[in-house]
């Protein structure tokens, strides 16, 4: 298997004991997964996109993490995703949306 260039993780607030209950899920994170997959495909970005359990930064959600760059983005929206992917194509981060240093 060829490893993708990027792994994009989208917090979906899943909990060990059951259903998604957190902020990210309640604020549309599930819908972002398909959107990100389609955008990456359209742009030719080689990325695997995965939904995750709670990433424990609920106050800054919905949260998206891009590996191997270790970019943690908060308060994502479709518009912000577009900006983030534009920057990723150029090998950069959108500093104003990062929630980690």
UniProtKB/TrEMBL annotation:
Check the record and name the InterPro entries matching this protein: Thioredoxin-like_sf
Q: Which domain of life is it from?
A: Bacteria
Q: What SUPFAM superfamilies does the record tag this protein with?
A: Thioredoxin-like (SSF52833)
One Pfam family linked to the record = 2Fe-2S_thioredx
Protein name in the entry: (2Fe-2S) ferredoxin domain-containing protein
């Amino acid at each position: 298997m060829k490893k993708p260039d990027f792994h994009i993780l989208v917090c979906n607030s899943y909990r060990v004991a059951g259903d998604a209950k957190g902020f990210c899920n309640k604020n549309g994170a599930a819908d972002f997964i398909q959107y990100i997959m389609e955008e990456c495909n359209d742009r030719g970005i080689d990325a695997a996109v995965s939904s995750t359990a709670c990433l424990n930064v609920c106050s800054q959600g919905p949260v998206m993490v891009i590996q191997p760059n270790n970019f943690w983005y908060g308060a994502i929206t479709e518009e912000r995703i577009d900006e983030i992917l534009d920057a990723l194509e150029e090998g950069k981060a959108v500093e104003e949306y990062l929630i980690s240093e």
